Amino acid sequence: MPCCSADSCASSTGSSPRFRRVLWIVLAINGGMFAAEIVAGMLAGSAALQADALDFFADASNYAISLFVLGMNLKWRAGAAWIKGASMGLFGLWVLGAVVWHMAYGSVPHAPTMGVIGTVALLANLICLILLMAFRDGDANMRSVWICSRNDVIANVAVLLAALGVFGTGTGWPDFIVASLMAVLALQGAATILRDATREWRSAERLSAVPVLR
After folding, report:
1. Residue 3: pLDDT above 80?
2. What domains lie within the chain, and their CATH numbers?
3. Does this model's pTM top 0.90?
């Protein structure tokens, strides 16, 4: 797919019925996985699972925002992407705080629960990633959706590695390390989304300042 840098190109691509249907599907998947994983994370005492559950919630919210701004002009879509980038950054900071709390209390998660739920989450996010792959070269709003899904797959693989580490060592350190890495990944993704959204916002401002010749 060619990169749509113009407002009209990005708008026609981003508001297509196909993209709208895909967003509704991934919204439902992420909402359901949030509910399942937050319960499992609390029962297992896993910071990594709880972090991944909140990531599902953030993504579901982001997909809902993306659906709301479909068909709007570039400035609106850039603003929505900026909100998503900021929420991803806050999520990263929250996860770091959760890691510190679990380290202070010396929590040891339940490795089998981490493994089972992590596998289900990985399959769910792989489905989302495949569905969204065709839209990874659109505007900042569409790219932010792709970045969220890409980060989720990486995070799920890390959760499975953490489960193996907890099972093998009998300590919570693998869980703490993976949760910290997930937080850093979220902060990096947030920086990318905010940079792209800010650039497109400024581009939209310049275009709106140009007088229209009749």
Report:
1. no
2. 7-207 (1.20.1510)
3. no
